[in-house]
Amino acid sequence: MISIIIPAKNETKLNNFLKEVLALKGGKEIIVEKRKTRAQNMNAGAKKAKGDILLFLHADTKLPKNAIQLIKKTIKKNKIGAFSIEFNQANLFLKIIARATSLRSRINKIAYGDQAIFVTKELFNQLEGFKDLPFLEDVDFMKRSRKVTKIKVLKNKVTTSPRRWEKDGMLRRTIKNRIIMTLYSLGIHPNTLKKLY
Fold first, then answer.
1. For residue 108, is pLDDT > 80?
2. Residues in a beta bridge with 19
3. Per-residue DSSP letters for 109-170?
4. Helices 137-148 and 38-48, packing angle to 10 deg
5. Would you tell me how many other CB atoms lie within 10 Å of the CB of residue 148?
6. How far is residue 20's CA from residue 159's CA, in Å, rounded to a whole number?
7. CA distance 144 to 197
8. Residue 183: helix, strand or coil by DSSP?
């Protein structure tokens, strides 16, 4: 069984989102957590989970209809994986960003949280879950996973909201993200980088 864990603090329109998740075919349970940080939400959900596969799903991300089947097939060979990504806006700039993000993640095996990361509960517990960081907990988790096992990023896509790009401006948000990831790779802690986010 797959346990779908949804960190949902401050999320609106959750009822419609949950209806879509419930409509997915396949054995699943749904766990919604509303704690202080996303990492706390996901770790708390993982502790409650009865499934042997954990799927961490942001509340503005839509899975493909055959997501559960894809995850079960992938997890037979890989203990952790994620999807490629596209945005739910018909914008050329966003299409380029999504394609670049998907390609990068398939190459370096580092997926972001909005790419619907899935992992065996065994590996999740082995890595002691997500670190309680203000953000970038997803990148940190993927980097630690990459050290101990192979990661599969599917070509199949989830669809997510570009709300941060819409709020901050397309170019500004993209530049910010690149600066943050560069500084993070140089060893700057997320607590410091949160100011830029």
1. yes
2. none
3. ----GGG--EEEHHHHHHTTS----SS-HHHHHHHHHHHHS-EEEEEEEEEE--HHHHHH-H
4. 50
5. 11
6. 13
7. 22
8. helix
- pLDDT at residue 115, rounded to an integer: 97
**Would the pLDDT of 11 be above 70?**
no
pLDDT above 80: residue 150: yes
Query: Closest Cα partner for 8 from 44, 36, 32?
Result: 32
pLDDT at residue 10 in the model: 62
Tokens linked to 1: 């069984």
CATH for 2-162 (3.30.70.1030, 3.30.1510.10, 1.20.1050.10, 3.90.550.10):
3.90.550.10
Listed range (14-18, 154-158, 166-170) with the worst mean pLDDT: 166-170
Q: What is the mean pLDDT of residues 105-129?
A: 96
Read off the pLDDT of residues 43-69 as tens digits, 9 standing for 90 and up: 999 999 999 999 999 998 999 999 999
Q: Is 144 exposed, middle or buried (0-12, 13-18, 19+ CB in 10 A)?
A: middle
Cα–Cα distance list, 58 to 11, 29, 32, 189 (Å): 10, 15, 10, 23
* Burial class, 19, CB count within 10 angstroms (exposed 0-12 / middle 13-18 / buried 19+): exposed
This prediction has a pTM of: 0.92
| Segments making up each domain of the chain, as ranges | 2-162
How many Å apart are CA 67 and CA 117, to the nearest integer? Answer: 12
